[in-house]
Write a structure and sequence with these properties.
Oligomer: single chain
Radius of gyration: 22 Å
Strand content: 15-25%
Strand order of the largest sheet: 7-6-15-16-17-14-18
Largest sheet: 7 strands, mixed
Number of helices: 12
Number of strands: 19
Shape: globular
CATH topology of one domain: FAD/NAD(P)-binding domain
Length: 427
Amino acid sequence: MKIAVIGAGHNGLISAIYLAQKGFDVSVYELRDRPGGMAYTEIIKGVKVSRASYVLGLMPERIIRETGVNIPIIRQDPFQVIYHNNKAIPFWRDKERRLRELEKAGEERYKYYEEIVMKFKRFFEEKIAFTDEPPSLEVVKEEAEKEGLEELFEEPLQKFVSNYISPELEDFFIYPDSPNELAFMTAYRFSLDWSYVRGGTGTIGEKLAERARELGVKIFYNTKVTKILTKDSRVVGIETNGKQKVELDAVISAISPIATSMMLDEGLKGIKDIKLPHAGWRKYNIILKEMPSIPDELKPFAHSIIDYDYGEMTFPSLADDSLGGLVITLMGSIDENPFKGLREKALIIDTFTPEELEERFNVPYGYLDHLPMRGQFLLDKRPKYRTEILGLYLSGVGTYPGGQITGIPGRNAAFALIKDYESGKLK
């Protein structure tokens, strides 16, 4: 069986690896000149920069083990720090040490928050993450209640967080786009495993591509899939670069579901009519000519992920000696940050924008998660792995469970295809 994967981001490559392990003939077609998608490393003035995605923390160990991929992770400790009112609260990897710091900062109820959230994360991985049919909110809620996790489905995220975190710090536990979503969303993005990747996040794509090639997967870079070819509501091939046709038995698209829909004459039901406001985020990648001025309270923790009042920043050079220079990544305000005089210390300020994401990565509307992580696009309300076109599957972050570098959509879409093949549906 001949299968094409559209997009060499982490989900596309993970799909390809699982399919190749089953013996399928798999080819990956990538618009850009490298693997990784938004998890990629750019060399700017001789310095390695994670231009878009910049940390790893939500990929299940199960996926790493099953794919046989060795990702060189740097487990900086503390992995994260909250910097507020000239005080630094480190999140150590050791649980007892971490809880002592939070209690010392006056967050006596934080331990209950972490206990509930981590219990949900274990439930998520064990019961609902790995599936070829994304669950509904009703099903997840019913199963979660059996685990004593009903609180996460009874109140909005902001109210839940306020039950355990002081008003002074609660905003650090709430993503700006989701305060009114159900509280289980705080668990999706929470992790005790946030880490850097040696050489930048582009190393993830490189290692996945290397593993895929070991299994016989063919990867074609600088190749744009311009059309998905169908006949009688079944995939028969793809068109690349507007001219070359490739005959196929199945296609997995790991790019934006909206962009995938645009490759079909009739589009995809439930996707072709999606209209969204353009995303408004900004990410700054700053190459420094000299060390910035770091507040004394923050100096012991400057190698960590730093959450501050106006955003989040990292100084990965302090943890990764392979980057070739001083680099800071920043999501949020570039002028309101803990490192004073940052602009003056900068050699290069590289700005990554939704407009660039849309143009260079073929992501309509410029959302890092392809589709917003909000109520209308959560759980089974995100596009399904299977489409109404036989042999066409979706596997990017626009599908369940959603954004960040998890690899779960890639694995699940591959298993949906494998299940259909073994049942005879695709033969």
